[in-house]
Amino acid sequence: MHHKKLFAFLLTALSVFLLVGCGGQKKAKENPAAPKNGTAVKVLKGEYIISDNKDEPSSGKGYLALKLRLKNNGSPVRLSSISNFKLKSKSDDELNPVSIYGTGDEFSTISSMELDEDDDSTGYVLFLVDKKSKYTLEVKPTSKKAKEVPKSKVKIDASKYKDNTSQAKDAVSAYVDSVFLNQSDKDDQYEKLLTNELLTEKNSYRRTMRSYLENTVFHSPIVDKAANKMMDQFQTANAEQASVSYQIKEATPTAATVEVTPTVMDLSNVSNVISQTSSNLLKSDKLPEGTTYTQVQRAAKEMVVAKFADVLKQIPARERTSAEIRLVKNGKKWRISTSDYGFKSVRDKFMGQAY
C-alpha cells in the first residue's frame, strides 16, 4: 500500500510540470496547472500566419502563432519572448521565437512582461516550425528576486493547428464580386466572411460611381432611371471582362492585407465617344437652324447615354496597378477598412477610373 501511494504521488508531481497544448481552437484536455511556485502556461489557441516583414517559409514550414495565458503562482517574475520561451523538437533542437511588433489592431508578439504573484496575462509567441512535427514549448521566467523559477512545459503538435490565411483573400474576393461587380450569386459568400453591411456597401459604391459618371465622364447630371441603367450595364460588362489577381501580403489572427491587381474596363475614353458624336452632329445637315453648341453637346451626351451598352462593348479591359486592401478581424469574420487609401484606389479602378 505504501508503494502505491508513493507511485501515485510521483505521477501527480510529474503532471504539474508537463502541460499539453491544443490544436486549432480546441481547449487542452490535460490539466493546465503549473508549479506551485512557477508560472502556469495554457495554450488558448494557435494558427499559422503570414507576415509581411518575414521571409516566406520553405515548403512544409510555417509561422505558428500560439496565444498563451500565463499565470504567476510564485514570486514576481519577468518574461521576454527572446530569452524565456523556447520550442524544442524531439531531437532537442531549440527554436527561438520570432518577434513582430505592431500597433492598434496590428498583430504583436509578447515583447516583455512582468507578473507579480497571482497576476495573469495573455499574449502571442511566434515560431517558424515544420508543420508536421511535434515540439515542447518551454517557458522559464526570470525571477525578479534572484530565485530559481521552475520551467513549465507544453506539448505542441504543429500538425493540429490550422492555416486560415486564405480566408482574408476569400473575403476580399467576395467583396469585389458582390459590391463592385454586382454578382448577387456571391452574396451568401460575402455574408459568411464579412461584417461590412452588404446593402450599405453596394449603395455607397453606386453613389460614388454615379458621381464619377456625372462629374468626370459626362460633366452633366443624369436622371435617376438612366443613371441606374448605365451602372447596371457597366457592372455587367465589367463582370464579363474583368479578371482579378489576389495576393496575401499579411494574415494574422487580428488583421490582414491583400494586394489586388484588377484587369477592368476604363471609362476615360467615353469622353472621346461624346466628342466624336458631337462632331458628327455638327457636320449633320439635320440640325435645326439656330441650334447652339451647348445644345449639340447635350444631344451628343444623351445619345451616348442611350447607347451606353454598345459603347461599353468597344472598351477592352486592361490590367491596372495593384493596391492593397486592409482587413481587421471582427469575431470570426473580417471587416474591410473602406476608409483606407488602398481600398479607395481599388474601388475607383472598378468604377472605370483611369488611375
From TrEMBL:
Residues covered by the DUF4352 domain: 52-142
Keywords: Signal
Span of domain DUF5105: 159-350
Keyword Nucleotidyltransferase: no
InterPro entries, per the entry: DUF4352, DUF5105, Immunoprotect_excell_Ig-like
Gene3D superfamilies: 2.60.40.1240
One family name in Pfam for this protein: DUF5105
Record's signal peptide: 1-28
Keyword set includes Signal: yes
Name assigned to this protein: DUF5105 domain-containing protein
Organism: Ligilactobacillus pabuli
